[in-house]
Amino acid sequence: MPILASAPADVAPGVTWLFGGLLAALILCLAFEEKLHAKKSIIAGVFAIVGLFLADAFGLIQGTVDATAGHTLFTLPVYIISINWEVIAIILGSSLFVDITARSGLFTWIALKLTKASGGDPLRLLVFYGAMTVVFSAVLNNVTAMIIVGSLTVVSLGRLERKNLLLGFLLIEALLTNIGGLLTLISSVPNIIVGSAANIGFMEFLATSWFYVLVATTVTIWLGAKRLGVRRLADEGEKKEAARLVATFDETDGIESPGFFRFAAVILGLFIVVIATTSLLPVLRELSMGYVCLAFALIMLLRYRSEADTFYKAIDWDLLGFFCALFIFIHLIEEAQVLHVIGGGLASVMAWGPELGTAGVLVGSAVISSVTDNIPLAAMLAKILGGLDTTTPAHWWAVVFGANLGGNLTPIGSASTLVAVTIMHKHGLKVSFAGFVKMSFIYAVVQIALAIAYVLVFVA
Fold it and tell me: Does pTM top 0.85 for this prediction?
């Protein structure tokens, strides 16, 4: 296994402060991404390039890293070996797999089946769509789940003549994407980063988080129904009219090929099972989840082998470029001892005691992730916790919960809440930054409070 060249132990304080300033500047730039009119990959790439130049100038790293494989010697630039390629493979493979599976009409079929099952009743529809959002977020990703569920919500409420409920539905669904992101190890990137650093397996992650997800989902939907005035249909006339409208829904509209639809359903089920058991299966446990995601993506691509390039164009290359640059930059600030300094502050918070320290880590993670991307936060805290002797399972889980739930405090806290606001604007629902915070704040506070209690009772 190649080993990165380590920074000298006596890094000058001025150099540490310089790289600390670069870290703060990166976080600030990511928070104001739209104002800068620049993509995440460009922002992080600039900081990675500047950071590499400064790190080499100050003697923090070597230009190349030697790795041996048998009798062959490889020379790799440090900016290649710094990248966590397992994370990149999981994101690339799962994104391709989801995009191609969606082409089968499977996700639309599931959504419209649920709409019919609700009978057009607003409260039942909120419960069904909320549950669907959580499941989609858990097995797909937050952004894809919000796009699919949000788009179907607009269609469903429009056909049911309930557009007055659209804002409330989209808000609840946006909040639930980040709760669903807590369910499995691959539901969100912070989970992958922290889980990998803490050696948390897929089944262990699921066994720890599922009950919180169930409770938080139930409370969020209940609170949303109360605050937004979503109620059951009581009048017989309303029930009959809703049933008539629901009868016009045809869940087979998006199915181009019944054969491919059935194939996609089987492969999706197999994908979930294999991902869940990768760490237990011979051969695959050595190849890891990244290999599984890429392999299943290729299996699905065989159906569209002559037009595979259309799916390549749809890949979020900005996200992948952002991760590559981010991993490089995180390595650089580690070499500059910035993480060591931040780790001292985190250790001080953890020293408050088992309860207060864990709660402090969770709340701090949530607040920071509400105003910037939770991915660099998770990567940074994973590095810090991994280097502390006093780290407990509760601290790892505090970062997981905080990094995910902080996205519900503001519209820039997560990509899925940004997607939800975009859908709102597209359909004439003008929601400002402050307006979103005003609507979401009570939900986020309740979810974070539940998370603190859950971690202290069930994990600590």
Answer: no
